[in-house]
Automatic annotation (TrEMBL):
This is Sulfotransferase. The gene is ST3A1. It is found in: Cytoplasm. It is an enzyme of class 2 (transferase). It comes from the Eukaryota. It comes from Anoplopoma fimbria (Sablefish). The lineage of its organism: Eukaryota, Metazoa, Chordata, Craniata, Vertebrata. Residues 38-285 form the Sulfotransferase domain.
Amino acid sequence: NYVKTHDHDLVPHKGFKLINGTHDPDDVDQIYNLEIRDSDVFVVTYPKSGTIWMQQIVLLLEAKGDLTAISKLSKNSNADLIPWIEVNGNRETFINAPSPRMRVSHLPFQFMPSALSQKKGKVIYVARNPKDVIVSYFYFHKLANMLETPKDFDDFFEKFMRGNVFGCSWFEHIKMWHSHQDDMNMLFITYEEMIQDLHSVVERIALFLGKELTDEQMANVVKHSTFNNMKKIPQANYEQVPGELLSHHQGRFMRKGTIGDWKNHFTVAQNEMFDEVFHREMADIPLVFIWDI
Ligand code: A3P
């Protein structure tokens, strides 16, 4: 008999939606003016696109593949070391934190520090095919107490397509970030590339971040960031995050980790409707997604 302990209202804010209790609108507004150092790294994603996967890789690159070093430092989860910039209280701790300051964010482009667009700091944007994002996000709404549990998949599909979810619609998020990528020091990666060739993606990230690792250290980064290994690392799997935030009996962060699970959830009609919207919305965005393998 499970009762949600959190207020999970979405709060409209300047055309976007924040989560009541998790985000403070005034605080989020001040993120735009943050001073950015060249050594700052932001991992930016639409939710469920591989955020904690990239968190794990960036941490491992910093620690030269030494998993024990990270596990000792992160008490509850990897978010202790790479927190969400937009979550209550995190903006303040960012300001005076020692370099390198590494943060993740789901915020739409318009809210992020404007200095990023003057080529200060670095941004790693991870995109995932949005059909799989919908499925992953559906299950995450059951796990996360700050989000309202959908009635069923159809209910969630509708909410997602209307953009009635935290932040903004998937289309808006990717279009804004993608179209501004040349203004920033940005590395654009897809979840599907990571699934297909993790080693070469990790090499690209290392190059982008200016990290020089030996072949053995590099192999360790890859080894400790595979789905099966991350599943066994409590901090990477967010297992020790308090039950009031995540209902661990309802699911796991490391759920399935594949391409194409949408095929097990979408009806033919939903798929047709989605394709139509996708082609219309993404007509000017030169992005090709892998939907299936
Ligand atoms: P699924 O729900 O489809 O399994 P985020 O971190 O942005 O919330 O994204 C979570 C999604 O990334 C989940 O997708 C999770 O399983 C997947 N994921 C996390 N680490 C992964 C890894 N090492 N390999 C493959 N998928 C991973």
